[in-house]
């Protein structure tokens, strides 16, 4: 009989403890779901690839990639980096409000870069699409 009482007490205790945990999980799931519904900024580039065609070695190509914030919160670019030291990016440093535009300017120095070129610029931000890329490509002809 004592074994039966002990079993019943353990079962009741386990049921009470598990009910308390289930409630916490539901609250956590509700909080996560609510935060997921909040939308942020979104970067959309007018063009993601720029083909500069053929240039002679030593020429510098400058191009501006314009993007629009199509989201609902301001976008802040945190880092813009190029795949090569011959490519130098600069970018809008201030927050870009929803519906407004920003820029990523890329400068490519073709000195010592003979042949087909494809330079990738990686943009990190607080937008929904946290990491995006743009591309600069073409061919550098020898002097």
From TrEMBL:
Superkingdom as given in the UniProt entry: Bacteria
Pfam families in alphabetical order: DUF1573
Alphabetical list of PANTHER family matching this protein: LIPOPROTEIN-RELATED, SIGNAL PEPTIDE PROTEIN
Name of the protein: DUF1573 domain-containing protein
Organism name: Sphingobacterium arenae
């Amino acid at each position: 009989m004592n074994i039966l009482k002990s079993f019943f007490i353990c079962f009741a205790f386990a049921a009470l403890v598990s009910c308390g945990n289930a409630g916490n999980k539901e609250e956590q799931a509700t909080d996560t779901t609510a935060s997921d519904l909040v939308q942020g900024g979104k970067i959309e580039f007018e063009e993601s690839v720029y083909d500069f065609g053929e240039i002679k070695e030593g020429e510098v190509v400058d191009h501006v990639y314009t993007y629009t914030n199509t989201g609902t919160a301001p976008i802040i670019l945190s880092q813009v980096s190029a795949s090569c030291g011959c490519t130098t990016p600069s970018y809008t440093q201030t927050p870009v409000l929803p519906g407004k535009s920003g820029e990523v300017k890329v400068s490519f120095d073709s000195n010592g870069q003979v042949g087909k070129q494809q330079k990738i610029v990686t943009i990190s931000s607080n937008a929904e699409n946290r990491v995006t890329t743009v591309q600069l490509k073409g061919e550098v002809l020898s002097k």
